[in-house]
Amino acid sequence: MTLIRQLGNQDEFVGFYLLKSLEIKQTNSTPPKDYLDMMLCDASGELPAKLWDASPTDKETFFPMGLVKVKGLVQTYRDKLQVKILQIRPAKAEDGVKLTDFIRSAPISSEELVQTIRNVVNGIADDEIREVVRFCVGKVEEKLEHAPAAKTHHHAYFGGLAYHMVRMLELGDFLCNQRPFLNADLLKAGIILHDIAKPEEMVAQLGIVSEYSVQGRLVGHIAMASNWITEAAVRLGIGLESPKVLSLQHLVLSHHNLGEWGSPVQPQMAEAVALHFIDAIDAKLQMVEDALNTTPETEEWTPLIRGLENKAVYRTKLQG
Amino acid sequence: MTLIRQLGNQDEFVGFYLLKSLEIKQTNSTPPKDYLDMMLCDASGELPAKLWDASPTDKETFFPMGLVKVKGLVQTYRDKLQVKILQIRPAKAEDGVKLTDFIRSAPISSEELVQTIRNVVNGIADDEIREVVRFCVGKVEEKLEHAPAAKTHHHAYFGGLAYHMVRMLELGDFLCNQRPFLNADLLKAGIILHDIAKPEEMVAQLGIVSEYSVQGRLVGHIAMASNWITEAAVRLGIGLESPKVLSLQHLVLSHHNLGEWGSPVQPQMAEAVALHFIDAIDAKLQMVEDALNTTPETEEWTPLIRGLENKAVYRTKLQG
Amino acid sequence: MTLIRQLGNQDEFVGFYLLKSLEIKQTNSTPPKDYLDMMLCDASGELPAKLWDASPTDKETFFPMGLVKVKGLVQTYRDKLQVKILQIRPAKAEDGVKLTDFIRSAPISSEELVQTIRNVVNGIADDEIREVVRFCVGKVEEKLEHAPAAKTHHHAYFGGLAYHMVRMLELGDFLCNQRPFLNADLLKAGIILHDIAKPEEMVAQLGIVSEYSVQGRLVGHIAMASNWITEAAVRLGIGLESPKVLSLQHLVLSHHNLGEWGSPVQPQMAEAVALHFIDAIDAKLQMVEDALNTTPETEEWTPLIRGLENKAVYRTKLQG
Amino acid sequence: MTLIRQLGNQDEFVGFYLLKSLEIKQTNSTPPKDYLDMMLCDASGELPAKLWDASPTDKETFFPMGLVKVKGLVQTYRDKLQVKILQIRPAKAEDGVKLTDFIRSAPISSEELVQTIRNVVNGIADDEIREVVRFCVGKVEEKLEHAPAAKTHHHAYFGGLAYHMVRMLELGDFLCNQRPFLNADLLKAGIILHDIAKPEEMVAQLGIVSEYSVQGRLVGHIAMASNWITEAAVRLGIGLESPKVLSLQHLVLSHHNLGEWGSPVQPQMAEAVALHFIDAIDAKLQMVEDALNTTPETEEWTPLIRGLENKAVYRTKLQG
Amino acid sequence: MTLIRQLGNQDEFVGFYLLKSLEIKQTNSTPPKDYLDMMLCDASGELPAKLWDASPTDKETFFPMGLVKVKGLVQTYRDKLQVKILQIRPAKAEDGVKLTDFIRSAPISSEELVQTIRNVVNGIADDEIREVVRFCVGKVEEKLEHAPAAKTHHHAYFGGLAYHMVRMLELGDFLCNQRPFLNADLLKAGIILHDIAKPEEMVAQLGIVSEYSVQGRLVGHIAMASNWITEAAVRLGIGLESPKVLSLQHLVLSHHNLGEWGSPVQPQMAEAVALHFIDAIDAKLQMVEDALNTTPETEEWTPLIRGLENKAVYRTKLQG
Amino acid sequence: MTLIRQLGNQDEFVGFYLLKSLEIKQTNSTPPKDYLDMMLCDASGELPAKLWDASPTDKETFFPMGLVKVKGLVQTYRDKLQVKILQIRPAKAEDGVKLTDFIRSAPISSEELVQTIRNVVNGIADDEIREVVRFCVGKVEEKLEHAPAAKTHHHAYFGGLAYHMVRMLELGDFLCNQRPFLNADLLKAGIILHDIAKPEEMVAQLGIVSEYSVQGRLVGHIAMASNWITEAAVRLGIGLESPKVLSLQHLVLSHHNLGEWGSPVQPQMAEAVALHFIDAIDAKLQMVEDALNTTPETEEWTPLIRGLENKAVYRTKLQG
Known about the structure:
6 copies of one chain form a homohexamer. With 320 residues, the first copy, chain A, is α+β, with helices and mostly antiparallel strands.
C-alpha cells in the first residue's frame, strides 16, 4: 500500500485511505454531471481526488471521515497533484483497517501524553495553583486525548495539543534548572493553562479542525482561559485578587507577547517571559520538523511555512 | 482669587490651592538647602511651585492633597511657567474652602451621574443581562462617584468615568433610534461594562490617578471586566456559555477594536462595532473640549494632544 | 418571483433580473464554444450565471444593464453558488418591470434625501459658508440623486451617497446639541462637502460603480473637493485665505484622519475631529447593517467585511 | 573674528554675531536674578549664550534678529557647548557689519537663483503650463529670494528653497536627456510648483523659520499648491478638468510619494515618479553636504541626521 | 509576423515565437487527454498558449527555450488573453530566425555595455579600489553579458544588469560634477559592486530567471558581494580593516537603505546615500518606461506595477 | 562598605568605588566654579556623583576607570538619586582593593567560560566546520575573556558575551537531544559564531562599552562575522560555495530573524530557526534576571526594560 507522501505524477496505485472531506459537485458540461470532490488522507499526508460521473449510489455510499479502498491515477492540475479515482469502495470489517491508522498524530500515544500532564499537575507543590490547574484541565480532559494545537499552524494533528504541552514542560524543566530564580510551579501551570481552552475554541474530530466555535470567535482561547481561572477560583473559594490567581491569569493573557498577536497585556513576570519563548521555540521547531517530514526527500526545500515569516526551509546537507 | 489658568509670567498673586503633589528636595548649592517641590492645582489647571529654603517646620506642615493659602510669583523656567512661593500656610476651617472646590470635575454632579446610570441599569429589559450588569456595577459602586476615566488621556478628573458613561448612553440611545436593528439592552450593557473595571485598574483619589494597581498592570481592565462577568454568571447561576454571557464578554473584550490597542478579539457583533465608535467619538471630543477649556483664550492653539495623533487643536474662528 | 438572496443550492427558479455585467467567453473544449458569463442582480443581492452554448442570436440579444426573464438552476462551483441558465429572454414592455426595481437603493427615496440636503444647505446661517457649499453641491446636483458612496466599501448603491450624508447630518445635529461648543454651520458644511467630489471620482450608473475616473485616480476626491472650494471662493469673490475658506478646506482634507488613509493633513479643529468620527461610525454601522441584510437569515455569520478589519459579523441572538 | 563653528570648550573670543533668539529669564537663586538667554549665530553655525545678572538697560537694549559685538567664554553644560557672555554691545553703523553676512545662505546668490527659475519658466513650451506656473510663482516671487526650503530638515537657510529648485532643475534636465520619453515641460513645472507654497506655509525671516502659519497647519503646502493651480486655471480661463491642470495637480499632490508622508495620491505618471525621486536625492545629498560642512573637521562623524533614518554620516577617508 | 504585444481577442495569426516554458498536462475529461501548456514570447511580450489533444510526437518534439512557428487563435480565459494553437512546428535552419531576436533585451548591445563597464573600472584612480572591483567583476564577467537585474521587478531581460549599471554610472557622473564633495572612485565602485553578485544569486538563461540559487536564498546578493570584497582583499593582500575595504563593504551592504528591504546597515557615508538613490531612481524610471512600452498604445493605464506601491501609471497626454 | 544598590536617599556612607566616567564641568554661578561630574560604580550598580568646588589638584588627581575611596551623601535630584561627595581620594596599594572587584561580571569566571567554549569547539565532529569556527574564535580569543554581549541591552558586563554563549550552548545541547533531526555541529558553530564579531564591533574596557567602532557602525557584527567565515575559508582552502560555508554564513546572517532587526536574510534552515530562538530566550531571561537582581528588594517592579517591549517586570510573589 502506497503512502500518500510517496505518490508522484502519473502513478497508478491501490490502497486504503481516509476521506478527510467529501462534496458532491457538478461539472461545467451540458448537461452538467455530478462528481465527488474528496480529500484523501493517511498518516503521511493528503491529496485532492475526483470521482467523475458519480452515480446515485456513489452519492449515497461515501461520506466524510469514512475509510475507503481506492484504485487511482495521480495527475497534475494547475501545478498540483490530484487523484483521478478509477475504482472506490468503502472499507469493510474484514479489511482489518482502523481509522486511527490513517490520521496524522503525535509520535507519542495520547494516553501517555495525557498521563504525563496529569503527573505534572499532581507534582505542583502549591495547593491553590494545583487545584486551579486541575479544575481547568478537568473541563477538557476527554478532548485532550485527541485535540490538535491549531487548525493548520503547528501541531495540527491528533494529540497535537497534548504533545505540544509535554514538550514545553520538558523545556520548562530544563530552564528552571538552568535559572533557579524561576518559579517552577507557576511555569508548569502556565504551560498547561496557556492553550487549555483551545479544545473549546475549535471544533475538531480526530485531530482535524473543521471550524472555530462561536465562543472561540467572540471570546477567543486567551480570554476563555482567563475566565476559566476565574470560575475555578470562585468555585474553589480562592480570592479573585490573590497574587496566585492574578499570576495565573497574567501568564495566560500575556503568552502571545504582543497585542497584535492577541495578548491584551504583555509579559511582566519572569515566568510569563519564559512561557512566551518556550511556546514560540516549540511551535516553530515543530513546524520545521513537520514540514521536513512531509516534504518528499527528493525536494531540497519545503513549501512556504506561514508561521516562519512565510519562508521555505532548506534541508540541511553538509556533504560537499 | 486668581484661577491657575489665568496666571501669566511675572504675575504676583494670593489664593487658595490644592497641593496635588509635594516632595522635599535639595539644591545644588554648598551646602545644599532643602526646598519643597510642589504642584499647585485648582479646578482650572495646575502649575509647579517651589518653596526655597524650607524650614524644618515647613517640612512637617505641608503634605500632598492638602489645601493651602499661597502668596506667589509666576516665573518662567525652561520655557514653562512655575511659581516661586513667597508665603504659604495651611487652609483653616474658618477659611471656608473645601477640597472638592479645587479639583477638576465633570460638569454634572457625580450623584446625578451615578443615579442616571442606575436608572439605565434598571431599564434593561432582559433579566439576565440586567443582573450581570448590576453585579459588576455593584463591585465599584462607591468608587464610581469619583473615579476618573483615565490617568491623563481623557475625562481625567473627579467623576470623569461616570460622565463618560452617561454621555455614551445618550449617544447610544440616539443610535438605537436611528438604527433599530441594534439591540438596545446589549448596547446599554456594553457601554456600562466596557470600562467598569477602571476604578480597580488605577489607584485614584479625588479623581486624580497616582498609579496603576498590580492587578491593573498584570491583567488590565479589559480582561478584568470579562472575569467579572464570569464571576457574575457563576454567582447568579447563569450558564457560562449562554449567548448573553458570551455577547457581554465580546462587547467588553473587543471595545478597543484592535489587538495593538489592547483588545484580544475584534468587534464581530453590530453592538460591538457601535460600542467601539461611541467610545471613540466621546473620548476624542471630550479631549478637544477639555483642551480648549484649559488653554488660555488668548492662545490660538491648544498644546499637543496625545490622543489626537499628537496634534494641537485650533480654536475655531470664523470672523475674517 | 424569487429574490436572489433566497436562492440556495439546487433550487430551480423563474424570475426577472438585471444583468449587472455580461461577457462573451469560450470554453476549454475542442472546438471551444461560446458562452455568456453574466452577473444577475436584483435589489436583494447578486449571483454569477452562465448561459452555455450561446447562439449567435444570444450574443446579439443580451447586454449589460438590461432586464431579463430567466429560468435557472442554482449550482455550487468552487464553494460558491452560481446559476446555470436554462431559459432566458429580454424583458418586454408588457412584463411591467422597471429597472429601478432591480437595483439596491437607499431605504429613503433619492428625491427626499436630496431635498433634505438642500434644506440643510439653506439653513446654514453664515452667508459665505452657505454659498460655498451651495456652489459645490451645484456641481454634482444631478448625480447626487443616484450616486453611491463607494465602489464596494459602504453605501454602494443607488442614492447611497445622499443617504450617507443625511444620516451623518442627523448625527451631527445630535452632537451639536450635546456639545454646544461645536460650530453647527461648519459641521453641516463639512458633512455635505467631505465626499461631494465622489460622483466625479467614480463613474457610476444606477448606483453601480464601473471604474474610477482619470481625475479620480490622479487627484482623488479629497483634493478635488478642496479645489472646488477654491473655485467657489474665486468665483464668489471670497478671500482664499479667509478663516472660513481655510476651515472648510481643512474639514475636507482631514476627514480621512491619517495620511495612510489619504488625508494630507490631520484633524486640528473640533469640527474636523467630529466629522471624521461621524463619517466612520455611519459607514461602519451601515456596512454591518447591509451585510446582515444581504446574508441569508439561516446563516449565523456574514461574509468577511473588508472595512471591519476583514472580520465577519455574528447575528446577535439572545435566547439561550 | 572667530567663526562659531570653530569655537571649542574654554575658548575666550571676541566677535560680531546675530542674536537669532533672545529671552529674559530668572535664575533659581534667592532672590531670583534676571538673565538673558540668547542664541548667537553666524553663517557657520549657532551656539546658546547666557548674559548673567542682566541689568534693566540690558533688557531694553538687546532684541532678537539684532547684530551684537560679544566677548565671551565657551563652557560645557550638560555635554553641550554654551557661551558665557563677558561683554556685549549692539553693533553700530561704523562697525561695517551687515545682517546678511551672519546668516547661513545658499552658495549661489538669491538673485541669480530666482533669475534662473524665471528663465526656466519662460522656456516652458506649452502656453497653458507656462502661464499656470508663472501665476503660482508670481504669488511668492518676492519671498522666493530668501525663503528656506524647510524649518530644519534640509536647505534651511536664506535662499534655500530657490537653491533646491535650481539644483533639481539641473538634475531634471539630465534625466530628460537620458530618458526622452519624459515630458520636459511637465517635469520643469512639477519641480517649480512642488514646494511653491512653502513660503506661505511657514513664517520666515532671513531664511530662518519661526513657526508654521495657520494656513500651513490646516491646509499644508501640498494642498495649497493644488489650490493655487485651481485659482490660476480659473483666472486664466483654463478648464479645471483639462489634462494639463490635472497633470500639474497630480505632480504636486503626489510628490511626497506616500500617504504617511503627506501625499493624498501616489505618483501615477512618469514625470511624477521622476519628480519624487529628484526631490528626494537633492534633499538627502544636501543634508549630508550641510552636515559635513557644519561639523568640525576633527570629528569623524556628523550629528544624527533625522532625515537620514536618524543616522550620523561618516566623513569619507580613503588613506590607510 | 505579428508581435505578441499587438495581439487582441479573436485574432488569428501566424508567426515565429520562443517557448519560454512548456509543460505536459491533462484535462479533466474522461478519459483525460494530454495537452501542452506553453508560454509564447517574443521581444515585445508574452502570452500563455495551449495545444489541446497533444500527440505522443508533439510531446517529444517541443521543449522549453525552443523556437517554433505557430498558427494560433487568441481567446479570453478568466479575463486574460491566451492562445489556442491551431498548428505548430519547430523552427528550421532555413527559417532564418535566431533565438536572440525573440527575447527582450536592453536597448544597447551587451558587448558595448560590458565594455563601458570595463572602461569605468580602468578609470578608477585608486589602485586598491580598482583591483578589488576588477576582482569581483572578474567572478561574473561572462554572465554579465546576458544577466538580467531581477526576476520580474526591473530590467528583467537580456543584458538588463549591465544596462542598469551603465545608466547608473552616467547619473553618478552627473552628480559627482554637481556635488564635488562626493568621491568619484567610491561612487563608481559602489555602482559596479552593488548588484555584482546577482548573476550568482539567480539562475538565468537568455536574461530569463528560472529560480533563485541555494546561495542566493541562504546568503543573498548583498552579503555575497560583501564576502567577495573580503575574498578580493585576502587574495590581493589588502588589509581587511582598511578604510577602503570597509567603505566598499559599507556601500554594498547599505544600498537597500532599510533593514526591511534587506540592508543590514543603513547608509552612513555620502557616497552610500548617493548610491541608494541613484539605484532607486534608475530602477523606478525603468519600470515606468518598460511598463509604458509593453502596454498597448490604446490603453491609458499600464497594469499595476508592484515596485511603484502597486500603482498603475497613466500615459501622459497633454492635448485637451 | 556599602553596596551601591543598597544606598537610599539621605544615606551618608564611606566606601571604595570605581569611577566609571568623569568630566570637569562648570556651574551656572557667577563666577562659574569647576566641579567633577562622575559616575560611581561597583559590582552591584552605579550612581551619578558630584564633587562641588573641585580644586586644581582634584582635577589632576582623578580619572575615568580609576578606583577611589569616597565619603558621600545621597540626595534626590529630578526624582533620581545622586551622590554629593564629601571626601574623596584615590585608592592606594595598601587598601588592598582591585579593579575587577568593582565591575559587574558574569557569575562564572571568564577563564572557565572561555575554556568551556574551547572544549565545545574541539568537540565539533566535522573538520571543516571546526576549523572555520576555531579560526574565527582565534581572531578575538583574548577579548573574549572580558567582552560584554552588548552596550546596555543584555549581558552588558565583564565576560557577558562568553557567558551568553555558554548558556546558549547548554540550551542548544538540550534541544539537539529533544529533537535529533537538528545537526549538532551546525548548531554549536552557529551559537559560537553568531556574535563572534561583537568584540570588534564595540570598544569595551572591563566589560564596559564606551562606543561602537567605525567598522561596527559601517559593517556591523552580522556582516563582519560573515566576512570572517569567508576569510577563514580562503585561508583554510575550503570552497567558498561549499554547503558548509554557506550554512555557517546563513546561520550568522539570519540570527536576528527579521530585516528590521538587522538580518539581511531570514532563517531558512532548521538550525537557523533554533539559533534565533535560543539567542532570544537566553537574552530575554537574562535581562529579566539582571533587572530583578539590580532592583532593590523593596521594590515590586523593576525599571522599564527596553528589550521587553519597554515593560517593567513584577517580582513574583505567591503568598497571599
